[in-house]
Amino acid sequence: MPVFGKIARVFSEEHAASLTGLSKGQLRAWDRKGFFVPRYAYDQRRDPYSRIYSFQDVVGLRTIAVLMKDHHVSLQELRRVAEEFLRRGYGHWAKFKLYVVKRQVHFRRPGSKDIEGLWDGQLAMVTIVDAINGIEKRARDISKRSEDQIGRIEQHRHVVRNAPVVAGTRIPTAAIRRFHQAGYSVKEIIREYPTLTANDVSAALSYEEGLAQSA
User: Fold this and answer.
1) Confidence band of 4 (pLDDT split at 50, 70, 90)
2) How far is CA 93 from CA 130, 181, 211, in A?
3) Would you place residue 29 in the very low, low, confident or very high pLDDT band (cuts 50, 70, 90)?
4) Any idea which architecture 146-214 has in CATH?
5) CB-CB contact of 9 with 194 (8 Å)
6) Nearby residues of 168 by Cβ (< 8 Å), 6 or more positions away
7) Could you tell me if 52 and 38 are in contact, meaning their C-beta atoms sit under 8 angstroms apart?
8) Most exposed residue of 103, 116, 167, 215, measured as fewest CB within 10 angstroms of its CB?
9) Are 51 and 28 in contact (CB under 8 A)?
10) Tell me, what's the pLDDT at 148?
11) Is domain 10-138 annotated with CATH 3.30.450.20?
């Protein structure tokens, strides 16, 4: 996976839904069924912000959304694809450029120019499904911030259900606290959220500490 500069590498459930066109209900159902589990998922899924998606997750989810909505591939077919990827040891959806023939998914073999049908091995040349560029642009758009938002925490009724977030983002302070509790340093948190600064992380952790003390 290439490096995408100052693009957030992790996304909340709300962000993932917005970027992919999928609903939060779909994301949660797919997580419960093991069809698509967020990279950073906590055991207690009922806790707020317990589902955090990587950039690669979002690209994979957007690819699935395109397959379903634009190419009318059934969820049953997508589950078969996921199982076949797992069986072949191929890993993540976002690592492949996928193709569709008659509502069946095909893919390009790693290191090959050929396109292979997952089930019968036949080759096909059809329109490619490639979500990376679109997600990259939309992720950049939601990451733009002004100088006066650095190091501030804010709440808005229509942003992440009024949860406290780093100003100018949709990154909940609770998500930053979870990374901190998991042993991530400030630098490591910023590596996951490249649009944040050390002041942002410090402000978020201080805010969460204040909430804990007042509880």
Assistant:
1) very low
2) 11, 29, 38
3) very high
4) Orthogonal Bundle (1.10)
5) yes
6) 144, 145, 146, 149
7) yes
8) 215
9) yes
10) 84
11) no
Q: Domain boundaries in the chain?
A: 10-138, 146-214
- In angstroms, rounded to a whole number, what is the distance separating the alpha carbons of residues 105 and 138? 26
| Residue 14 and residue 53 in contact, taking contact as beta carbons nearer than 8 Å | no
CA distance 199 to 193: 13
The 10 Å CB-count burial string (b at 16+, else e) for 160-181 is: beebbbbbbbbbbbbbbbbbbe
Fill in the amino acid letter for 21.
G
Task: Kindly report the pTM of this predicted structure.
Answer: 0.63
Q: How far apart are CA 92 and CA 82, in angstroms?
A: 9
Residue 114 token pair: 């050929």
Quick count: other Cβ atoms within 10 Å of Cβ 185?
A: 11
DSSP, residue by residue, 88-134: HT---GGGS-EEEETTEEEEEPTT-S-EEETTT--B----EE--HHH
